[in-house]
Amino acid sequence: MIAAGEPAAMFETIVVATDGSDSVSRAVTVALDVAARFDATVHALSVIDADASDADNRRAELNAHAENALAAVESETDQPVVTTVREGEPAAEITAYAEEVGADLVTTGTRGRHGENRFLLGSVAERVVRLCPVPVLTVRQLAAIEGDTAVDAA
Question: Cα–Cα distance between 28 and 120 in angstroms, integer?
Fold first, then answer.
């Protein structure tokens, strides 16, 4: 119960989906900032795409990459972070996890396509926005990454 005059916590549980890529690093920063402002619990989730992990040797490599991505989130804050690795279709797993932990917000990165590419459908972030019953905050990268010449203005 909230005492009179005390503001309600807008966010108590925040899920940040990470694959360890440069395009998600800003989303991690934003999620951690929001969590700090609202004293929210942070859940960092990395999903190994089931289609990419068919071979056992590839699965171990992808699991190690996911664990490194989660360690990077933990290294960005002094607050405790609940870390989870899942395997499956990324958007479905992110959505299911958010529901399971009672998340108030899901944060994910997006590349922020420009020009003709902005009409391409099928990104994980877009599918999460469409599937997830929890509010989703998509965070665009600010600088060109991986050869993308489009640079977003702040």
Answer: 24
The pair of structure tokens assigned to 83 is 């870390």
Closest by CA position to 90, among listed 68, 108, 114, 115: 108
Q: 14: Cβ–Cβ under 8 A, 6 or more apart, which residues? A: 31, 34, 35, 40, 41, 42, 43, 103, 104, 105, 106, 107
**Domains defined for the chain, CATH in brackets:** 16-140 (3.40.50.620)
Question: What pTM, to 2 d.p., does this model score?
Answer: 0.81
Alpha helix locations (H) across 47-89? Answer: 56-75
pLDDT tens for each residue of 73-119: 999 999 999 999 999 999 999 999 999 999 999 999 987 555 444 44
The alpha carbon of 127 is separated from its chain's Cα centroid by a whole number of angstroms, namely 13
Query: Do 39 and 83 meet the contact criterion of CB atoms below 8 Å apart?
Result: no
